[in-house]
What does this fold into?
Amino acid sequence: MNQNKKKVAFPIFSHYNLCIKYFIEKALDAEYIMQPPMTNRTLDIGSRYSPDSVCTPFKSTLGSMIDALEAGADTLIMTLGLCRLGYYGELQEKILRDLEYSFDYINLSEYSTGNPKDYLKALRRIGPKASTAKIARVATETLKMMSYLDEIESEYYKNCGFEIHHGDYKAAWKKFLISMETADSLRDIEDAYKTARKEFSAIPVNKPETTLRVGVIGEYFTSVDAFSNLNLEQKLADMGIEVHRWMSVTNRNLHYHGKTLSIEINDYCAYEMGPTSTANIWCAKHYASLGFDGIIHAKSAGCTPEIDIMPVLQNISYDYKIPILYLTYDSQTSDTGLDTRLEAFYDMIYMRKKAV
It folds into this structure.
């Protein structure tokens, strides 16, 4: 192995680190350091060195970067964002420097000039010899991988709660993730996707016509990342619920049409309210109009944009007569407390559906 290669890491975020790994290694000829999955230890370490008032994703991503540095990373990447996430990189770097870690830091917020070509400057700090053509080709392959990961995960949560043989879906899902992690080409990505689709379709399920359907909406990081929401979707699926979640990197960043969504919700919201607010209001109205049995709104404590849309969600709940469960996560949120609230929510929507 080339000892001069940079050893790059990014905070753990759901399954998307597989995509980042593929891009870093194939496009930039660097080594990607896959730190351990987040655990309570990760969150505890991040919380220890974070300001008390910051949201939980700040703490968990800081802890994940510390895990990466301890695993041998010498280069860290931090993304940009439309909310306080845009300031994460600057503050987290200062905290890590104060802890006397040595590393190169690429804060993508510094390259968000409005000119996409400026991002090439950030990438060339990792792979100075990488050609633009190669970067473009591998980026296309990476986006395809990301899209497949989101699609298969969506199918998983819609159906895994109804499998006849317990564990079939989880086994196929884990096999798919391993195939994506070891993918070496676009062909490998395509083959892994086709295999997963085939295996999913072959799993016998028993889904009643009266199946409960719940839509999960909320703050980007918390609603998507299973560790951050304490396996919310898996818990719901294990109750025998068909779980839907529109929010994903593919939908929010690749297929997002804010103006169209704003038109569809102009009876509830006349202005853009934040990075995921328009999408969440649209999702809530969409799920309600399709006759879903309930909606769950997940956010981290102190997430101002998501707090702001709660009155709007209440209006949708009232107009469409659909229950909404509001979940707020912080570093002290426990599985036991979440289980209790989900069980009560399940009982309510089950009895409501039975009565209707």
About this structure: The mean pLDDT is 94. The chain has 16 helices and eight strands. The beta strands are 7-9, 31-32, 75-78, 104-107, 212-218, 241-244, 294-300, 324-329. The first strand starts at residue 7 and ends at 9.
